[in-house]
Amino acid sequence: MDLHVNLEDRRDLAGQIYRALRAAILDGRLKPGERLPPTRDLARSLSVSRNTVSVAYEWLTAEGLVAGRTRAGSFVQGAATAPGGSTRMAPGVHLRARDIWSTLPPERAREAAVPYEFRVGVPDTRTFPFESWRRLMARQFRATTRSEGYAETAGLRGLREAVSRHVGLARGVRASPDDILITHGAQQALDLIGRVFIEPGDCIALEEPGYSPARFLFQSMGARIIPVPVDAEGLVVSALPDSARLVYVTPSHQFPLGMALSPARRLALLEWAKRRDAVIIEDDYDSEFRFGGRPLETLHGLDRSGRVFYVGSFSKVMLPELRLGFLVAPPSVQGALRAAKRVTDWHTQLASQAALARFIDTGLLARHIRKMRREYEDRHERILEELDREGGEWLQPLPSTAGLHLSVLLRQGGLRLERDVTTRAREAGVGLVNLSRYFLARPARPGWVLGFGTLPSERIREGVRRLRSVLEASVSSDDS
């Protein structure tokens, strides 16, 4: 390995080397079992004598931190401290970040998995065709061993062509490869739109309740967020503020409540944007998994004035860790969006782009979506049946015909009961996501968003039964 040792001066060289190596071993940078550089090599790199390095190694050996092996070298054998212990940087001067970063919620610590986890926004990866994907990735890595440098910012032409065909067939989105920008998931697509359009103080309209990562992103850019209510027909267009410069919507499957934006509201929203010279972000995040009813035409498909940005992702239909998404944008802002992408990260990883293009073109994506649509529809029906059987007295499911989750409202009780049940449910092996967390304004509606992407069908009944038991126990303790 390459090992950096900083020699401050030419005095006590063996001591300086010893102390540097000792610190690296104790704080875990050098781990037990790792081989130290040969004394000859380290001496050459530090411009010291080999005997100087040998003395430092001997001191470490005497202390039990290093052991020599005949004809093999010197190896670390001392125990490292816990990760993140003494390797932290010294606090130094207190630097002040922009105030907005102290107002956004910190990253949630990943809780230990429980047997009945109603996780939101995560697909079932157990049936993903990993072997096919590995072959495609291996093929691309072999093909790109002779890299010619950085690639086109908008994404590989082959993938943009594949995405153009995919969204055209699956969602009726009219887009040429030149209209498409490949991104690191939907979140980067939102970030690029925000960079191009949002000035500090701009008014941005979001659904209430709505997708909180989009809200946090736009808030970090200095936008003024206005929550707009939703009802059975989706976003209430008549409640949009006149000053809104941008509207973010999830029209196919409103997040988190689940209704679709009605045809009349879609036309009204497009007319509103045209009249107010505003733009619309259409997040079509899980439209592939529709279980009933005729799919409504996308806002992008209805748009005739070039104001709709269509955002899609492969995280929920394939793998969350893939981090590949796309943005269909009007030609008038393609240059600005590509510039924003270029100054952010230049381009998305090439091998995964090429593999995804083949995954789409060979029909593997369509086949996987069909398979998972049947599976998720079965889970959707089962969870509704169990909620009716076990939770009818307590829980009101909201209508939903697509996606990987459905929301339920508490028929009685408030936010305190919601929080109490969530805590107790995890102790009973049930993982819940509070509905109230997706509200910006108050009062929030208590309930839960029940994801079934990672919960097998055979566990749904017991998961709902335990939820009902926890609800009853929580209500009884409140009454007492």
How far do the termini sit from each other?
A: 65 Å
CATH topology of the largest domain: Aspartate Aminotransferase, domain 2
In total, how many domains does the architecture comprise? Answer: 3
Largest sheet: 8 strands, mixed
Please identify the structural class as seen in this structure.
alpha/beta
Please write the string of helix (H) and strand (E) elements.
Answer: HHHEEHEHHEHEHEEEHEHEEHHHEEHEEH
CATH architecture of the largest domain: 3-Layer(aba) Sandwich
Provide the helix percentage: 40-55%
Which spans have pLDDT < 50 for at least 5 consecutive residues? none
> Number of helical segments?
15
CATH superfamily of the largest domain: Type I PLP-dependent aspartate aminotransferase-like (Major domain)
Strand order of the largest sheet: 4-11-10-9-8-5-6-7
| Number of beta strands | 15
What does the overall shape look like? globular
How much of the residues is beta strand, in percent? Answer: 5-15%
Question: Could you report the average pLDDT, rounded to the nearest whole number?
Answer: 91
- The top level CATH class name of the largest domain: Alpha Beta
Radius of gyration: 28 Å
Question: How would you describe this structure to a colleague?
Answer:
- With 480 residues, the protein is of the alpha/beta class.
- The protein has three domains: 64 residues, Winged helix-like DNA-binding domain superfamily/Winged helix DNA-binding domain (Arc Repressor Mutant, subunit A), CATH 1.10.10.10; 120 residues, Aspartate Aminotransferase, domain 1; 237 residues, 3-Layer(aba) Sandwich (Aspartate Aminotransferase, domain 2), CATH 3.40.640.10.
- Helix 10 links the parallel strand 9 and strand 10.
- Helix 1 crosses helix 3.
- The mean pLDDT is 91.
